[in-house]
Amino acid sequence: MQGNMVAVWKAFDGQSKRLVIPVYQRNYDWAEAQCERLVDDLEEIITENRRKHFFGAIVGRNEDSFTWVVIDGQQRLTTISLLILALVHAARLREIALEDAELPGKLENNYLRLDGGGDGSRPKVKLKPVKDDAEAYVRLFEGPKHLLETSNVTANYHYFRKRLAATGLSADQIWTAIQRLEVMHLDLEDHDEPQRIFETLNSTGLALAEADKIRNFVLMDLPTSTQNQLYERQWNPMEKNVEFKSDWFIRWYLVTVTSKTPNQDEVYEAFKRFARSSSRPVHEILEEMREYSELARQITHASTGTPALDRALKRYQPLHSDVILPFLMSVLRDHKEDKVPLTDMIRIIEILESYLLRRTVCGMWANALNKIFATAYSDLLRQRTDAQPYSEILIYLLRRRDDSSGRFPDDEEFREELLTRNLYRLRSDNRTYFFDSLENLSSKDTRDIASRLESGDLSIEHIMPQTLTAAWRDELGENAEEDHATWLNRLGNLTVTAYNSSYSNSSFTTKLQAENGLAESPYRLNAYIKEQTTWGPEQIEERTRRLADDAVAHWPYAETDFAPPAVVLPEVPMGAEGSFRNRSIVAYEYGDVTATVGTWAEALPGIVGAIAREHRSRVIAAAEDNPMLSTEDAHVDETAPGWVRVEPGLAVLIASSTNAKIRGLRQLFLKLDLDPEDLVFRLRPAKGDDGAGTGSENSSEDAVDSPYAPLLKFGPRFGELAGTAATLDSTAELRQEFRIAATPFAVADAKAALGSKRLGDLTADVLTTSSVESVLAAIQLTLQAEDLFDDAALHAAILDGRATAWVARLRAA
Fold it and tell me: What are phi and psi of 646, to 5 degrees?
């Protein structure tokens, strides 16, 4: 191996030299954050006059006289190439200052295109990324009408164009800065081991995903034609089946074939051990992985193609745990091979459903399941000596743990928990599934409780309310406090209802007779309630008993004869449950982004954009089955009503209800395996709540059509801070947001607009009767004061109420 420190541009030097990124490399996945850091570094190289800047390492080997195969560093090389191309286009269109008029042509011909320029139909370029990236990259040379907007390659090209148009540097200075980027350039020789070097280079710093290392391990030493074949026929289909959650899938694949569960950060090493100990060739292992990925997709999406089995899987899904996937994949494979009859396959799903639901109600920890199901399939085969049904052996395997933490709760234990447990505190998806199942039981006349609970059209409510009001004290009698504490969260006191939440603390009679109240309920769950004239411990106990009987019968204990040989402006996390209907949003916070907004429709593109900056390719993929997202041209171009472009290639639907937006976001968070608790909404208080920010004068939703809407949305946040002792640092982000929003409203001569008044004369009281022009002038002069001599000018206006008065006066205009 030969290595030297060289300028990164030299990797592209030589008009006949081609850089090829082999298919075993991961897709180009640098996000906007990495591109932003690169441009920041380039600007600092010039402003601080740095002579050199280390940009990492690139490793490759010469395949022939004209081809250099990239072993490591493809992210850096692709990014530099995109930046140079964006620089060429920006300079030609005069989006950036240019001194040397010949620079764009020199850069394109010397570092981007090969000799000959192309065959007349497609450009001939030096860099060849992996398949999908390669198409997007070539299209960048073909003009704006041909761009592949869904690609991360195109997204970062757009970002560079935007940054270059905004930079204070010239194109010549940017190119000078690029020339000062240095890399450790390593040329491998015949005796070098590419995989070992690759592993060493990626053993520190931001590690590759486990699947990336596995892909390199199985493909790297194969001939290029074989690499391409295995990638196209087996690896890539596998990743698509599992929606590119490849680390997740390979971990459970390894459990399936080894009966051992590797730690999440040790999947690569576990795979190497498995592959090296296997007598099978790599193509057989990859084919098996592809087959299992298809089984995983059918299980997680209830899409086996057999309606009865899919219905069983769909019922089971809310309870599904990843640790059970290896067992289910193996059994489903046997079913596909006619080793397990359909009736037995469905029976297995039903057994697992009962087992998991009973354990959930009984509050048993899920970690006990890992070891049980890691070996369940191999245990089943070992126990099966004849043609015994798989389901009977599964029951035996679960029941043999009756005295352990992995036990199958029997009827006595299950019933006792149903009669006494606080079932209101079940995890939301389990609670939704539980009440949906109790409503429908085995009836063919099913009612979709689950979807309506998820949408917020229904809610699970206490009949005897959580707040013990005077009316309820009278209804419960002398032991009201004790009875309330005992029976409040019992199963019999919980039901599903569509009545307005404002009735929550109402009397039983009111709850029965209210609009959409219990007396009008079409649900079987409420049949007993409708027959009652009063509600207390006796009724709750009886209904609890009846529902417990239903539950015990619906999720039966499995038995067999088989014998073996998880204020003011309320800050509310989105979470995985709950309705935001009739709530007005003021701001949202996600990661390092905090944004003030006027409506949910304004918030949605910003939230999705913040997620896409970190997970763009996965968000694009999620658009396929999320009705809130789209990559269609008519939506991205905003020619279709109701759609707003988030960024090139991605649009969101804003013409929808608040709950539909929340539902779409929750679906996206779930798809990307993000924590919905990380997205926090700042809301106006609910109607009737006390606290600043209430009342129409502080509403931003009711002023959307105002010409001053970009400023009006700050009213609730300014109102929240008025009269407080907030620090200067704590208002920094808000002040910057407001400054940007106020820029388009600048007055030509702010001082003249005030007439004889001085800025200090415009107190909050005076502002209420001032002209709109005076208010806008006051805003402008305050911002100028902050720039020139008083960095707390706007901060003071927020705290003393002047900023709130600005917004109130503009709203009244």
Answer: -85, -45
